[in-house]
Amino acid sequence: MMSSSKGTEKNLNDFEVKRKAVKLVVAHLKKKVSREYMGIQYLIEWFEEMDALLEKEEFDIKEYYEMRKQLNSVIESTLDEEMRTKIRNSWYSFGKALDKKAKPY
Fold first, then answer.
1. What's the pLDDT tens digit per position in 16-63?
2. What is the 3-state secondary structure (H, E, C) of the chain?
3. Domain that holds residue 41
């Protein structure tokens, strides 16, 4: 059992937890896109922007909320019912990811 190693062990702060959770959501969404469909270019553009945001050193929560809003626009542009559902599920997960907080030790 570890005793008060808070100072030495690197605790994940809330932003790192959120970023990791969002990364997972994006990775899962990429796996869900298994085929071409009408409007896929909107999602591909969104992935490119999202990947660039995840690479940034600093974490600006407003940018992440903006990307979530943009993902909603992608849903609106997606006529394929199956893909629309998959993207919408990821949109919900994205919201949950942004609510995550680091666990207190």
1. 999 999 999 999 999 999 889 988 999 999 999 999 999 999 999 999
2. CCCCCCCCCCCCCHHHHHHHHHHHHHHHHHHHCCCCCCCHHHHHHHHHHHHHHHHCCCCCHHHHHHHHHHHHHHHHHCCCHHHHHHHHHHHHHHHHHHHCCCCCC
3. 14-99
Whether residue 62 lies inside any domain: the answer is yes
Residue at 5 is within a domain: no
* Domain assignment present for 9: no
Domain count, the chain: 1
Cα dihedral 20/22/23/28 (nearest 10): 130
Q: Quote the tokens at residue 55.
A: 């690479």
